[in-house]
Each structure stands twice: as C-alpha cells, then as structure tokens.
Amino acid sequence: MACIVQKYGGSSVAAVDKLQKIARLIADVKGQNNDIVVVVSAMGKTTDELVTMAREISPKPPRREMDMLLSTGERITMSLLCMALHELGYAAVSLTGSQAGIITNDRHNDAQVIEVRPFRVQDEIAGGKVVIIGGFQGVSYKRDITTLGRGGSDTTAVALAAALDAERCEIYSDVDGVYSADPSITAEARHLPEISYPVMQEMGMAGAKVLHAHAVQFAKEKNIAIYARSTFKPGRETVIRKLSPGTIIGVQAVVSEKQVARIRLHGPDALTLFRQVVEHLESEQIPIKEVNLTETITGGGPSTASFVVSVQNVFGWEQIKAALMEKTGAAIAVDTDLAALSLIGEGLNRNNLTLLETVGLLARNGIPVSGITTTSFRISLLVPRNQIEKSVRLCHSRWVAIGSTT
C-alpha cells in the first residue's frame, strides 16, 4: 500500500462540522487502499487564546510551561477527528507527538526535531488504522513536552513522511498553495504552481507563513514532494520538490516579516559584548540571524556588531530586552520599529542589478533601507515597519507582476 501523510491546519479545522468534512476526505483516501497518517493543528484561534490566558497571568511565562499549555490545542483536534472517523466506520487512533516518536532537542517554544521513531505509528498502520497525530509538538531527550514554533505542524508532517518513506506529503489549509506575495497585502500576488526546495526554504526563513523552512529541509533530504492545497476548494496546488537547476531565474516571491528587532553593539569591546548578549539570548532559547561584525581599520578587533531577532513568538520580549539593555548600558541599541523585506528566487545574486534597482526603487519612494543581507536565493532589506506593506507592493510590482529583467 502507498503511504500518504496529510496535514490539516488553519481555519480548515476551526469547527466540528469542518472536522467532520475532513473525516470524509480522509475516509475517501483510506477507501482507495492507502495507508494514511494525518497531522492536525489546533482548532481555529485556540493557540492564540491559550497565549492570551498565559499572558494574563504572567508577562513572561516560563517557556517549559508554555509548551505544556500550547500542546493541548492539537490534542483537542486529533481526538475529535478520530471520533468523526469512528462514526464513519473507520478504525482510527490519535497520538501525541511524543507517542508518535517525534524526538526534539531541549529547547522550548522553538524545538528542533532531531529524530523520528515512528514505531507506534507503524504498528497502528499495520493494524489497519488511520493514525491521527497532534502536530507542533514532540518530546525532548529529557522527556519534556516541547513545541516546534511557528509552522510546527508542517514540520511534524514532513518529518513523519520522511521517516515513514511516504509516497507524498499533502499540506492542507485555507489557501490553495503558495503565492508570490501575501494576497492580503497585494492583489497582484500570483499563485505559484511549483517551487524548488531552496526557494521555499528561503521563503519560510524570511517570514512566509505557508510552509516552515525546517519542514522543507526534511523533504529535501528524502526527496519527498510536498503538495500545498486548499482543504475544501480542490483545484490549484503548489508542489514543492527538486527542480532542474536554472528552471526559473529571477524574483519569484516577495516576503515580509513585520515583527523583527535589530540589536546593535558598538565600542572597543563589541565582540565581547556580542558574545555576552548572544549567551544571554541563548539562555532564553532565542535564536539570532543576519549577524554582522565590523573590524576597525587598525585591526583592533570589531568595533560594531549587529544581528536580527524574530520576536513574533518570543514570550516576554520586552522583559528580555530590558534585561539586555541593563546588562550592556550605552553600548547597545535595540531597533524595534523595523521590518524585513525579502526578495526570493533563483540566481538573484549572480550580479548586483536586482539589489541596486531595489534600493533605488525604495529610495525613490521615500523608504529608507537600514540594513541588507543576501544569500544565494534571497535579498533581505530592513525597512521601517510602518512602510513594509508599501515596500512589498512596490517590489512585487517591479519584480514579479511585470517579470524580472536582470
């Protein structure tokens, strides 16, 4: 039998009647003589509601306890969906992330999957059951419950698909795939029928909400195609898979991340300060990115250091920021009014033309650029947060709507 892994999330699991519709979709797939494993997200705004309750008690709740709290949302969904399948006459069993063998490191709120031991899942499949698994969660090697951060249910699904040698992984939500920009920001956003693994990874790291970068990594390593589809509106889809090199050259998507903070350090001991600050953030289990160190001309060591933190899912950021500023004094500056604008695509940095034109385009429209970083598939610029949507529309119109000309 073919093994198919499906994931259902977004508003498609927001209500009981929708779970009943999903159960019928799953039953159809199972009825075609397939083995099927289903990963689910929390219903509707359940996670947001749990976060709100926690913050009513504490502005900076313990990360471990947040994981214990947030992991309950997916358990509700998986149990109800299992009941719906039983009502249709299909044997089904619900499993938590830990029961499914999702082993993570010991970070909380943004744990990384380090191994999948799907023995229980395989046993249930062999018994003819549909296996329903709570996404977004796992268990650390210390046997603590952990959560995988934004897009964690996608990571659960693709990691399981890789471990089970599944034929494919289908990601269902309330949108019919991946778009060249957030349609709520620009009406010109184009549906993308296929995307390469590297481009999708860069989109995920730059803030795109459709698929998490860590999920794509598992798929790339096992060469598993991911199909991003709408749950209740079949038709278009986006396939994420290995594409021939150079299949598409130029900007394919414009992605934004609004809730970022840039930390800047300066002075003769900038490198020492950098190490201290990063050690403090690591103690809070907060990752950093886009690191820059600048040496003095005389070779006396770095005189400035800077990096970016994604703060959207950091609990108690204001308290953490205050502690950093108290620790380092005048040597630190934290810029919180910035957002990240990213152009994603193949071959963007084969020359400097895309970067130069983008900086010029923003300047002509009165949008200052406060920082630039590049990779093989991405150009990211820091711009004022209150101008990020305008920046997305301008760049999408220039590079995607009319096509790249570099």
How would you describe what is shown here?
It contains 11 helices and 20 strands. An 8-stranded mixed β-sheet has the order 3-6-2-1-9-13-14-12, with helices on both faces. Strands 16-17-15-18-20-19 form a 6-stranded antiparallel β-sheet. It has a 4-stranded mixed β-sheet with strand order 5-4-7-8. Helix content is 35%, strand content 29%. α2 packs antiparallel against α3 (63-87) and α8 packs antiparallel against α9 (317-328). The protein folds into 2 domains: 3-174, Carbamate kinase; 254-401, 2-Layer Sandwich (VC0802-like). With 406 residues, it is α/β, with parallel strands linked by helices. The model has no long low-confidence stretch (mean pLDDT 91).
Give a short summary of the structure:
This protein is of the alpha/beta class. The protein is built from 11 helices and 20 strands.
Rg computed from alpha carbons, rounded to a whole number of angstroms: 22 Å
Give the helix level as a range of percent: 25-40%
Highest-level CATH class of the largest domain: Alpha Beta
Assigned CATH superfamily of the largest domain: Acetylglutamate kinase-like
Uncertain segments of ≥5 residues (pLDDT<50)?
none
Question: What percent strand?
Answer: 25-35%
Mean pLDDT: 91
Please list the strands of the largest sheet in the order they lie side by side. 3-6-2-1-9-13-14-12
Number of domains: 2
CATH architecture heading of the largest domain: 3-Layer(aba) Sandwich
Shape: globular
How is the main sheet built? 8 strands, mixed
- Beta strand count: 20
In whole angstroms, how far apart are the ends? 47 Å
Structural class: alpha/beta
Number of helices: 11
Topology-level CATH name of the largest domain: Carbamate kinase
